[in-house]
Design goal:
The protein is α+β, with helices and mostly antiparallel strands and 134 residues long. It is built from four helices and five strands.
Length: 134
C-alpha cells in the first residue's frame, strides 16, 4: 500500500502506531495531540503495510508552516517516490522549512525532498534500561 492522507477513521490506528516507541517521536505525538486528531494546520500522510494486516507502519506530519515530522520504520522507507509525490501533490507550492525527529528519520526524509541541511540541532533523550533505584 502506498502513502495516503490521514482521515478521521485512521485515528485509532495512528494512536496505536504512535504509542510504540513513543520516546522516539514525541514531536509528532504532541503535535497530533494538540490537533485533537484533526489536522486543520497541515496534513498527515500514513503508509499501511498490506503484509501486516493493513496496520500503519510509517507516518509524516507536514504543517502549513513547513515543518515535517517523520516517523519512519527504516532508514530507507519503502515508497519513497510515493511519499515524495504525496508531499508535493498540492497545487500551491509547499513550503518545507524544517524536518524534526530522530536523526535517521530526518536524514531519510531529507533525501526524499532532496534538500541540503543548512543547520541542525541535536537533542539527547535518556531512556531507562531498568527501573530507577531507590
Amino acid at each position: 500500500m502506498g502513502w495516503v492522507v490521514y482521515g478521521r477513521s485512521d485515528r485509532d490506528d495512528l494512536v496505536g502506531f504512535l504509542s510504540k516507541d513513543e520516546w522516539g517521536h514525541v514531536g509528532f505525538s504532541s503535535s497530533f495531540k494538540e490537533m485533537k486528531g484533526s489536522v486543520p494546520q497541515g496534513t498527515i500522510y500514513i503508509r499501511r503495510d498490506s503484509r501486516e494486516d493493513g496496520r500503519i507502519v510509517e507516518a509524516v506530519l507536514c504543517t502549513q508552516a513547513g515543518l515535517l515530522i517523520p516517523v519512519l520504520s527504516t532508514d530507507k522507507p519503502s515508497g519513497r517516490l510515493d511519499l515524495k509525490q504525496a508531499l508535493f501533490r498540492t497545487k500551491r507550492k509547499r513550503s518545507l522549512n524544517t524536518i524534526m525527529g530522530l536523526s535517521r528519520n530526518v536524514e531519510s526524509l531529507q533525501a526524499i525532498v532532496e534538500s541540503a541541511c543548512r543547520a541542525s540541532v541535536n537533542y539527547h533523550i535518556m531512556t531507562l534500561t531498568e527501573p530507577p533505584r531507590r
